[in-house]
Write a structure and sequence with these properties.
elongated; three-stranded antiparallel β-sheet
Length: 49
């Protein structure tokens, strides 16, 4: 099986899906924790450009 992907320009693209792959640090405690990662006391928003 061969699975082709394109991971350029901060977007991951497959045959049937396209999604954002960026990660950005949030400098304050987020109000909503959807798609947020907490690591070593810092918060990161996953899926941002």
């Amino acid at each position: 099986m061969i699975i082709g992907i394109d991971h350029g320009w901060s977007m991951m693209k497959t045959v049937t899906q396209v999604f954002v792959t960026g990660v950005k640090e949030i400098t304050t405690t987020p109000a909503l924790f959807g798609d947020v990662l907490e690591y070593e006391g810092k918060f990161y928003k996953v899926g941002t450009v």
